[in-house]
Structures are given as C-alpha cells and as structure tokens.
Amino acid sequence: MPTWPQAFAEQAKSDLEAFDFIARSNLPTCHRLHYLQMWLEKLCKAYLWLPGVGSEELRGRHAVVGKVLPRMVREHWRRIGFEKRPDITAIQEICRDIDLLHPQVDDNRRSLDNVEYPWPSDSGNIEIPSQWKFDLSSRLYTDSGRLLLKAARSLTQSPAIFIR
User: Fold this and answer.
1) Residues 100, 104, 108, 110: is their CA dihedral positive or negative?
2) Exposed (0-12), middle (13-18) or buried (19+): which is 98, by Cβ within 10 Å?
3) Distance separating alpha carbons of residues 51 and 3, to the nearest angstrom
C-alpha cells in the first residue's frame, strides 16, 4: 500500500503525462495550463506529506505551488550540485501565477482569470478560459520558466525523494 507522499507523487506523474500529451495537441492553452497546475500541486503535496515537512493546513490547500515548489527546486539544485543557481525570484513569480490558475485561488479577487470557469471582466464581458490568452503560457518559455519545468519534471520522474 502506498504512503501519501508516494500516492501524490504517482498522481503527479500521471498529470505530467497528461500535460505533455495536451501540449502536443491543438487544444486551447487553458487545458495545458490546467494540467500544469494540477501536476505541480500534486508534486508539492507529495513533498508536504513527507514526515516533518508540511503542515496539515498546507496539505489541504490549493495554493501550495508558490510556497513549496521554489523550495523544492532550490533543494533539487543543491542535491544535483548546480553550481551557479539562477535567481529564484522569477521562478517564485511563475509559481505564484500557477497557483492563480485554480479558480479558488483568486488573490482576493485581483485575479479572476482561471483555466476552468468563465469569469466577468472589468468591462462586464464574460471571459471564457478556452478563448483567453494566459500571459503565463509565454512565461513558461523564458529561461526561468524552462528551468522551473526542467526541475519539476526531474523531481516528478525521480520519486525517490518522496520515499523516506
């Protein structure tokens, strides 16, 4: 029987596979970003379920990527001996924006756009995720975005860190 860290790590792997599959398709960007958010949230929860790492409160929240993934990335870089570590600030900002993709994480209504449900715009129009241009999508292809995805992919594919 798997432990909670192992179960979340396994589901994160499955969400990564869905993310990769959708990224190769012609589906709207919102679907790829939805699986990105789910993948990284479960990766973070796998880490939070390790003994002595996470709090009960954080394990039950959606907004964990911005708080947890940068810490995991730094630890990963330390473990693999990444000598010149990039500035983590841009990575932290991307991680926070990944949290904001979830409809229940709206930053006190400052960010209503999300990958799942339509929302009202400031002008009163109704915005539709499948037709929305998410700024985050292009930021994933910056140096910081690529470094983040490379580290997260490595952490997901090497579940040994979740077995203690």
Assistant:
1) positive
2) buried
3) 11
CB of 92 within 8 A of CB of 70? yes
Could you report how far apart the first and last alpha carbons of the chain are, in Å?
A: 15
Q: What is the pLDDT of residue 51?
A: 85
How high is the pLDDT of residue 80?
Answer: 83
For residue 54, what are the contacts with CB-CB under 8 A and spacing of at least 6?
Answer: 45, 47, 48, 68
Domain ranges for the chain, please list them: 4-162
Decide if 101 contacts 36 (C-beta within 8 A): yes
Per-residue pLDDT tens for 34-43? 999 999 999 9
Between the alpha carbon of residue 77 and those of residues 20, 120, 150, the distances in Å are 23, 41, 11
